[in-house]
Amino acid sequence: MRTRCIKIKLKDGTREQVDDWAAEINKRANEARETMKREGVSLEAAFLDYQADGVYLVSVMRADDFEKAKAMARSSTADIDAYHRRFKEACWEERTELSPLIDLSTEDQ
Length: 109
Known about the structure:
This protein is an alpha+beta fold. The protein is built from 4 helices and 4 strands; from the N terminus they run βααββααβ.
């Protein structure tokens, strides 16, 4: 398994939508976990980062194969995946993958 971290600049004025999205994903956690399993994703976590130039969403994922996970998420007909795609379209301005320095897990032993 590998870990990936991306930093997403959020569009101005979308902070309330971000809170709504997080609340909805947390409320539907079991449904989200089922789609994660199908995609081969073992961890998803999201954090907010407030900077002088705006608000960023920092997302951490752990998966066996990120390309497979991405393809499955794009083609998924699950309602929660469609909800997430709409959120991305409405709120994401710019996405940057951060460079990993350390990627350790007790799961890999």
